[in-house]
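Please go through the protein record below and explain what the tokens say about the fold. Record follows.
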Amino acid sequence: MKLITSLFLLAFGATAIHAEVPRVVTSIAPVQGLVSEIMAGVGTPELLLYEAISPHDFAMRPSQARAIGDADVIFYVGQHMEPWLEKALQSREQNELIVALGDMPSLHRLEARELNDFGAAHDEHNHDQVFDPHMWLDPENALLWLDVIAGVLEIADPENEALYRRNLEQSRAEIVATNISLQSDFSALEGIEMIVTHDSLQYLEAAFGLKVIGAFTASDGQASGARNMSELLQHLDSNTCIVEDLTHPSRIAASLPEDVNHVVVDPLGYAAVGQTGYYSKMLSDIAQSLMECRD
């Protein structure tokens, strides 16, 4: 699917203009939250996956397929995050304003980890590799996405260009401030070893210096084998914290001994959907949950 950047947009901007506010559809909560910040005061983008379930194997309903067909602008991460979206996108007659945010070449992208290679170095320059699609958890990536989102909306809806631009500046400033604040907060987790039920926090690790030593499922949802799981459970002690992804609940996590720290995080930020300052609220909620690992 073609990635729309400012250069591509300029090439066909004259044909992409709509007299009314464009109908905007987004795939998952983090994308909807960022688009909502730019569209504040103009409209509300539709969210396809509005349930706290895994986006990797979601099955669309007919109403959601119709929303995709009727949309003027569609924002999503990419085929490795929302494989269920590809077929519906291919059936559209007009594909100019379909934006795969995760395909931006300027993003900070981390290679998807195998379940047995935690702590290994990851090469970001191998073009054949598969990237971890949870890119929104790096604030620098979120800032880049905001720029692209604003640029697309300004082309699709030039009458509201000034408002989109003001919203962009405000959202960027808020995210920068939140990033600085959370750097200090996350430093309190230094030395805590985390085992995650789903490998969705790699970008958060890199951005804030967290230490994740293993996962029950990989970033694409692949489940850990019995041997790897056994080795992970042997690491459990007073310095270890089990971090359960809300969209990937674990029966093992639910049956842990009481002396093992166990917290639940919401990396897709469902609890923050519809709130002002979505992205900062999402990151702050994750930080607050992880702070319980110290208890």
